[in-house]
């Protein structure tokens, strides 16, 4: 008995230390499985290998039908079917280049000679026939591998459905209540056989430990144990201190540092404990001392250890008991203090769950022992969660009584209410005999809590990351503004949009993970997460977040490239050409619209959106165009015509329908015209095409300045003409060609009208130069003592009723 107790204690210690090593083996197993066919392809006949895979698939189908009839669990069959699928896909990948090579050689030989053509040599004909036979054989092997892959995929789905059906059946089964004597009598009756099974496993494990203690394996075993202890105790502490130093030195202060530290601390706990378990497993199995069953048990327990460490790290990071300022959730210090041990307790419960479940499966313990184990685990997990909820409720009630009532988001209250209800239902289910149902609820509470906590940390992390990187006042934001000429508002909008998209993507991943079948392992978890990126089906609609995410990347990167090219054209290339400013802006605008359309089409293609699937949108648009979008389409086409033919360019001075001003911008729908008072008039593009338009500056038109001066009848006309010509010629803004001229326009009974005309470089300068010339002429006339003509005096008379002069 003492020997058994000693062995059992060794078993418990070893099982608690068997850590993350199997996750490394699990990570290597897909690679090895996938690489097996590739390596075998050089030494193994593909046809024989495919026949073996077909036999394996038939064996899995037979086993599935037998286990389905007997009600035995079918969890291992899914991984076997997945291995067959991977190997079949690998054979398809391996044989495809050989098919391409054969096709290339047949292409070089060309088709057989036609009737009447010179015959080809016998060697060439024989070579062509041999290549065609090889191609036909290879094509058959590729098709067979593809069919095997599809059959394995269907079988995997069938296994998952069968397992779910078995699980649903188990939930409805009712066992004896733990409050009844019959429940414990069955446990006592099966106890000797269960202990014998456990003793056999303990003996095998003791033999493995004894073998690891042999001289050839003792040194690595001790080094691995020492490394494991150093990782768990000082290693994690040093890693956290180093993380703090790096964060304070390189991370900007703010919310991003807080959320990043929460994630880093979670990974620190997970990896330190996981690597410690990995080292212990490496020390024990240094020379393959553990047999296959124990190694499989260790791998299963290691996966549970990984998740348990992750649960503990999540809770520790969220509570942040030692650093309240880093705490992400809005928790009171008293609440964090009261819950400081619960993450570790829940993580230990998670590990205990995995250890006992896989130990019962490997040892083949009796049904009463398995039921008793699940009942105790359900009570333990739900009890821990219920105790935590009661502590939080008590502290909250005390705080609300002393201070004003704190407000929490609706989802927090909903989760707390559901958790409380689940705890009550779990305990009632255990004591009424529905132990499978209680175990399922307890497991789901732990699983949902882990998913929600992970989603909470990742949501805060991505939001704080975008807010920090795209902050207009931050270092990175200022670099983006200077490099890509992005406005501060555009950076803020990009931060909000990207954060919302990532939040939706994370939520979809969380939902897909929560929908994972009960009892699934890491393979099922990563498979479901992969399925979320491959596509989620909602009814007949398939949502592909991975394709959508890739399309967004293509669209954003494409717009950045378009912006860079646009900036290069407008600032470097086009200014060196002979095009005027208006032509340059038109070219840049037109190319920008074309490039944006191309980028949008590429994004749609990346998102697997076919134009044929958008025919209903085109139909709706055609109806809309028929009823209310004629003007928009007309303006759009007119805008393209304006950019292409350029009857009006940016910078032109136009006049139409009472609107006169400078063209500042030509868009695809309307044109912006700046008026004399600096206001902007938005004119639809169709008016430039359908109405009369006066383009004052079109064709580099010159400005014309005309000045008319009335002079008295006695004025010396020659002298007046000379003074006006001198004033027109002396002004620096007037042109020599065409030369200014002065004419005598009219002679009346009271005055003589002299007109002077000069030309300037642009019509825009005419008004200002005319004012300068008038001031100059007035000064010259005053100096020459030539007064301007004044209007005659007006005589005001009072007329009578009949028009005669009224009496004075």
Give a structural overview:
With 808 residues, the chain is α+β, with helices and mostly antiparallel strands. Among the domains are: 117 residues, no CATH class; 289 residues, no CATH class; 74 residues, Roll (SH3 type barrels), CATH 2.30.30.60; 81 residues, Alpha-Beta Plaits (2-Layer Sandwich), CATH 3.30.70.100. It contains 24 helices and ten strands. Strands 6-5-4-3-7 form a five-stranded antiparallel β-sheet. Strands 8-10-9 form a three-stranded antiparallel β-sheet, covered by helices on one side. Strands 1-2 form a two-stranded antiparallel sheet. α1 packs across α6 and α8 packs antiparallel against α9. Pfam families: DUF3772 (PF12607), MS_channel_2nd (PF00924). This is Mechanosensitive ion channel family protein. Keywords: Cell membrane, Coiled coil, Membrane, Signal, Transmembrane, Transmembrane helix.
Question: Top keywords for this entry?
Answer:
single chain; 808 residues; SH3 type barrels; 24 helices; 7% strand; disordered N terminus; disordered C terminus
Biggest beta sheet attributes: 5 strands, antiparallel
| Backbone structural class | alpha+beta
Q: Nearest-angstrom radius of gyration? A: 44 Å
Unreliable residue runs? 1-42, 802-808
Give the helix tally: 24
Strand content: 5-15%
- Please give the order of strands in the largest beta sheet: 6-5-4-3-7
Average pLDDT reading = 76
Distance between the termini: 153 Å
Helix amount: over 70%
How would you concisely characterize the structure shown here?
Among the domains are: 41-110 and 126-172, no CATH class; 181-469, no CATH class; 628-701, SH3 type barrels (Roll), CATH 2.30.30; 703-783, Alpha-Beta Plaits (2-Layer Sandwich), CATH 3.30.70.100. It is 70% helix and 7% strand. The chain has 24 helices and ten strands.
